[in-house]
Amino acid sequence: MKRLLILWAALHLSAVLSAQNPIIRDQYTADPTARVFGGKVWLYASHDILSPVEPEKKWFSMADYHVFSSENLVDWTDHGVILRQENVPWGKPDGYSMWAPDCVEKNGKYYFVFPDAPRNGRGFAIGVAVADAPDGPFRAYEKPIPGVWGIDPCVLQASDGKTYLYWSGMGLMGAQAKDDLTELAGTPVRLDENLPQGFKEGPFIFEREGHFYLTYPWVQDKTETLAYAMSDNPLGPYEFKGLIMAQSPNECWTNHHSLVQYQGEWYLFYHHNDYSPAFDKNRSVRIDKVLFNPDGTILPVTPTFRGVGITSARDQIQIDRYSALCHQNAFLAFLDDQRPFEGWFISLVRPGSWVRYDRVDFGEKAPGTLSVRYRAAKDCAVSVSAGEAACRFDLPASVSWKTLSLPADFPATGIQDLKVSLEEGETLQLDWLSFTDTSWESFSDSSTALEKYLVPASGKNASPDADGFVRRWLLLEPISKPHRSNNVFTETYLRELFKEPYFPGQLGEILPKDGSRVGNLCWHAFDSRLFNVKLFRFASNLSEDRYGKLYWMATVVHCDREIPDVRLSVGSNGASMWWVNGEEALLMDGDRRMVVDDCASERLTLKKGRNVIWGAVINGPGLSDFCVRFLDGNGNPVTHFTVSTK
Ligand code: FUB
What we know:
Elements lengths: L1 H9 L5 E2 L12 E8 L2 E7 L17 E7 L4 E10 L17 E5 L2 E8 L8 E7 L7 E2 L10 E7 L5 E7 L1 E7 L11 E2 L13 E5 L2 E9 L4 E8 L7 E7 L12 E5 L2 E8 L11 E7 L20 E2 L11 E2 L4 E5 L9 E5 L5 E8 L7 E8 L3 E7 L2 E7 L2 E10 L7 E10 L3 E9 L3 H6 L8 E3 L15 E5 L2 E2 L10 H9 L17 E2 L2 E8 L6 H8 L6 E11 L3 E11 L1 E6 L2 E6 L10 E2 L3 E3 L2 E11 L5 E7 L10 E3 L2
Parallel strand pairs: 21-25
Antiparallel strand pairs: 1-5, 2-3, 3-4, 4-5, 6-7, 7-8, 8-9, 10-11, 11-12, 12-13, 14-15, 15-16, 16-17, 18-19, 19-20, 22-25, 23-24, 24-31, 25-30, 26-29, 26-31, 27-28, 27-30, 32-36, 33-36, 33-37, 34-37, 35-36, 37-43, 37-45, 38-41, 38-42, 38-44, 39-40, 39-43
The structure holds beta-L-arabinofuranose (FUB).
The site of beta-L-arabinofuranose has 12 residues, from strand 2 and strand 10.
């Protein structure tokens, strides 16, 4: 995992990128404790999974902890696993009970505090693991903290210089503890006795401007709200003040949270079962802003999908993570119910339906083009507005997802709230919007207009062209590899380069979905208008930075019978490598021009059914393209198959 992270960082990608809620989008995360160490926010969370030992038992299951960090609350890096259940000397190695954790720093040591099921005995004990850095490696103490039985530890390093430990045991417990948390330094006291009934778990205590805040999940009606009480003393008595967040309308039974001050603002980290609506024990971490009244009381926080941070207008604006939605005639749905981490889309059902997405940064220069990924059974028209800027766009019907670039006479600059309203048509489904600087005149009049070369793949399987060239491809937006010369593309270099992991499922049988993302890059399914796929045009359409790129591509060749004795025949500008059904078929090194049938593989057999072809092309300066076909034993093109990107 570390290697993958380093590589992704080198590619200017973060392991997880997201500006909206949920913030972690490739695994379930819950019970977030956010701490600031070294100018970054570190997120210690539970890692929900489906129980591998008792899948039918619909209960919490957690085998390890990850930690995540961010400098802007928008881009989150996953530092990988910091502690596993097998590495807790006193814990059950197969207990799957690594519930809500916390972490604090003292004198350069990081103390990670966590509950776990003890090897001997029942229930939960609370243990500590120590490291020299916030992302570990953490080593667990031999024994849990004596006399502390329960879950959801929280540590307060108070302004009185003392360390306090809180947890959920026989009620809401608190005690002074030694700084290294090896043991308690005082007698535990119960803190919930004078609070309204309904405390369950998950206390989080913090200090602000002379007040101590005891915040906790509280069941008032059906599911957990987040409530709080205040005191002048870390161990109370605490006076109940009210709700920070109401219970969720769709019944995720738990909520669990922390509050943290970062760069002058306060944030609430909490969780919800966004990616798992049918099973509320698989949750995901969210963030929203918190405000305080002058008397120190907390203003209730409304949970949002939009979350925190500013989104660049030049990024893909995931409109489904909206700030506000017109609720009568608009709704949210998964792009693929089977793959929730792929995200959602918004449906604007009738004219008048709208969605609003706040805090989009248009920069100093108004954009020239708007790109929209959408689907609509009928022709539609939308209005898009941001501050004073407003524009109407026609979107032609498309039954499959389509990315369309449109001229945008849209004088928006600075940070604005973006609103999209359906003007004509019905059930317009929107995945994302993005603005670019390209002026439409230069975009459409010059030879860079993408539609001249590549159009979104649609309809049933495609056929190869009369000369056998495969024209339907899934292309990943280019990865920056700023080589100034093509001389470096030796066989050794290429093998190492293409061996690196760039995305999940690389060279696998299942292709990424059209529109799915790798960090901030997106996969696109295209049909090429030409026999050669113009990668250079693809890159130019995305940004002005079009040289020094690594491209990944894949397609599926469907055969209704086995086709033996064929060769994969490729021309590529520049160097490339190709795989058929997981096996290497061709490596083309050096500074290459795109020449039809430049290189052909050894003889191979296309199976009956699906044959998965992967390719990677890298180029320094110069144009990039490729053409691929299969030739039979006589050197004639093979054409009796179809092609899809699934
Ligand atoms: O994650 C397991 C448990 O669910 C936590 O310990 C509780 O606070 C609740 O969020």
